[in-house]
Amino acid sequence: MSKTLFINARLIDPEAQTDAMGALLVEDGRIAAVYGETHPDITGPAIVDCQGQCLAPGIVDIGVKVSEPGERHKESFRSAGRAAIAGGVTTIVTRPDTRPAIDTPETLEYLRRRATDDAGINVLHMAALTKGREGREMTEIGFLQDAGAVAFSDADRVVSDTKVISRALTYAASLNALVIGHVQEPILSKGAAVTSGKFASLRGLPGVSPMAERMGIDRDIALLEMTGAAYHIDQITTARALPPLERAKANGLNITAGVGIHHLTLNELDVADYRTFFKLKPPLRSETDRLAVVEAVASGLIDVICSMHTPQDEESKRLPYQEAASGAVGLQTLLPAALRLYHEDQLTLPQLFRAMALNQML
Amino acid sequence: MSFRARHLLAIEHLKPDEITTLLDLADRYATDNRNGIAHKDVLAGMTQINMFFENSTRTQASFELAGQRLGADVMNMAMQTSSVKKGETLIDTALTLNAMHPDLLVVRHPSSGAVDLLAQKVNCAVLNAGDGAHEHPTQALLDALTIRRAKGRLHRLSVAICGDIAHSRVARSNIMLLGKMENRVRLIGPPTLMPSQIDQFGVEVFGDMKEGLKDVDVVMMLRLQKERMDGGFIPSEREYFHRFGLDAEKLSHAKPDAIVMHPGPMNRGVEIDGTIADDINRSVIQTQVEMGVAVRMAAMDLLARNLRLSRQTAKETYA
């Protein structure tokens, strides 16, 4: 039996919400015991002296876009795996918004082999909620679950047909399948490149009101009351969407919410003179919204921080702002960017790791 | 000389003294143009390329004439029918043109920010001839020169900009310029055609023409695009003209000597009554066109001077 004892470690425990010096015993790759500053004599372990540095759980990043199948030049399992390791991410959950979409058990099985062969980290997969992510017919949720899908999502597309989405949620609920949704009123936000407001007006770019996110969450909460499905919101980016989320949780709905690291650390002004690498979906918001969302992570109202890793190539980004593709990478920079929130005293380390490593254990 | 810019991309980046320098030079060119005094030596040996990714007759003609009056070799690229249609990206088009070593590049593009992007990739001076709903700096400069000539000054005036502010690059550039030169700017139009949080730009916003036009020195009308007239942003053309079209009655609320401007092309009977547009005592619309050539001559002259200077410096540095 192999044993390793990590001593003089600053242990970040997201479950107990503690941040204290101590030691940690690992046996055969599993945590066997956690000690305070003093630890009993243990025979024969390898000792690792952490010299006061942080020891925290590996990050679980949900909603990572690996561009397989279809666009391997943007990101492959191999490159994503290496970026994850460099960023302290040990598990990723991949998104189904690939080309083609991951909407059949056959595609999913193929991808699981690709991930096992190339990624070098733990990879879990989401599958599409509707065929081709077209919002018309639900996918084979049962078969996809058998093939290993851990959640169902049409990624950044909203299923606008309420009959389709209500049936998909009802069906998913019967299989205890988690559905991940993007809350956005799709018609109001159509064509938008930035968040509406002074900056959008100054740059002459079409904006979307933060109210579109609020409308999206209101609709989805009503659907959850109707269907009882388990539901996770991929990204909450505005202050306006927080009160409905809080009410839905208080009412006992099976709902959780996430936020991407970009919306926690950047605001609309970072777009500056049309920097397309900050073009995201939903767009970067006002500073007021950013601070409200950071506070919601601290309070635990928002459960999960993820990278919303969306790799794009030069050809998709070196275009006029309105024509450029949305999305930015974040797998490698998730942790360093999140630590900025710690150093600015906005979040504690246990709060950060609660949102990055604990709450997403689906 | 206090005009140091390499490109003319936006009024936002200009300082008040740069604007004054440019207008002073344009004023001289305007007078010389009237008196038939030629300046063929100013841009002699320089190449000006006009790239219009969006249809324009008057702006393109104005830039072309300005370049020719200063002696530049002027070439018009018909971007509507060119390789852009074949899928070439803006950056590739820019690099291709750059390889031909132009000195001045005049660009109009339907996307906001596209001219900025292009300017990053070329070695010549770039003039923004309008990008999306962002800016149209030479239009604001020619409006400023027209106002200065009519009113004798370009500060402490009350200027009303009326109509489709939301989609207008002309409005944005004018708000910037008039604000920088310390004028009071009022915006008048239906709320569906106002950009969000526009009240934070140091302007007053009105939804009623009579209130908004009260005692203003300058009335600046904007063109309402045909595709926005029916139902989408406003109920109908006739309701728009009734509420926001400039007629004698509404104009009577402005100062008795207020001037009327329009960037053209006009929709008579939609945003402006024909008799007002033609009233030589009030309308300065033809003067705007005349000042357009002079302002563009001045802008290209100043940018060419800076371009020569930077090339000279580069030569000395690497000699």
Provide keyphrases for this structure:
heterodimer; A: alpha/beta; eight-stranded parallel sheet; 12 helices; 15 strands; 21% strand; B: 319 residues; 11 helices; 14% strand; globular
Strand tally of chain B is 9
Give the overall pLDDT of chain A as a whole number: 94
Q: Write the CATH architecture name of the largest domain in chain A.
A: Alpha-Beta Barrel
Strand content of chain B: 5-15%
User: Which residues of chain B sit in consecutive blocks of at least 5 with pLDDT less than 50?
Assistant: none
Q: For the record, give the distance between the C-alpha atoms at the N and C termini of chain A, rounded to a whole number.
A: 30 Å
Outline of chain A: globular
Q: What kind of oligomer do you see?
A: heterodimer
Structural class of chain B: alpha/beta
Record the strand order, biggest sheet of chain A.
6-7-8-9-10-13-14-15
In terms of DSSP E residues, the strand content of chain A is 15-25%
| Structural class designation of chain A | alpha/beta
Number of DSSP-assigned strands of chain A: 15
Q: How many structural domains in the coordinates of chain A?
A: 2
Instruction: Give the topology string of chain B: H per helix, E per strand.
Output: HEHEHEHEHEHEEHEHHEHH
State the strand order across the main sheet of chain B: 7-6-5-8-9
Q: How is this structure best described in words?
A:
The complex is a heterodimer of chains A (about 350) and B (about 325). With about 350 residues, chain A is an alpha/beta fold. Chain A has two domains: about 5-55, Urease, subunit C, domain 1; about 55-360, Alpha-Beta Barrel (TIM Barrel), CATH 3.20.20. Chain A has twelve helices and 15 strands. Chain A has helices spanning about 75-85, 105-120, 140-145, 160-175, 200-205, 210-225, 240-250, 260-265, 285-300, 315, 335-345, 350-360; strands spanning about 5-15, 20-25, 30-35, 45-50, 55, 60-65, 90-95, 120-125, 150-155, 180, 195, 205-210, 230-235, 255-260, 305. In chain A, strands 6-7-8-9-10-13-14-15 form an eight-stranded parallel β-sheet. In chain A, strands 1, 2, 3, 4 and 5 form a five-stranded mixed β-sheet that branches. In chain A, strands 11-12 form a two-stranded parallel sheet. In chain A, helix 4 packs across helix 6 (about 210-225) and helix 6 (about 210-225) packs parallel to helix 7 (about 240-250). The longest helix of chain A is centred in the middle third of the chain and has 17 residues, at about 210-225. By secondary structure, chain B is of the alpha/beta class. In chain B, about 40% of the residues lie in helices and about 15% in strands. Chain B has a five-stranded parallel β-sheet. A four-stranded parallel β-sheet of chain B has the order 2-1-3-4. The radius of gyration of chain B is 20 Å and the shape is globular. The model of chain B has no long low-confidence stretch (mean pLDDT about 95). The chains are: A alpha/beta (about 350), B alpha/beta (about 325). Chains A and B meet through helix 5 of A and helix 4 of B.
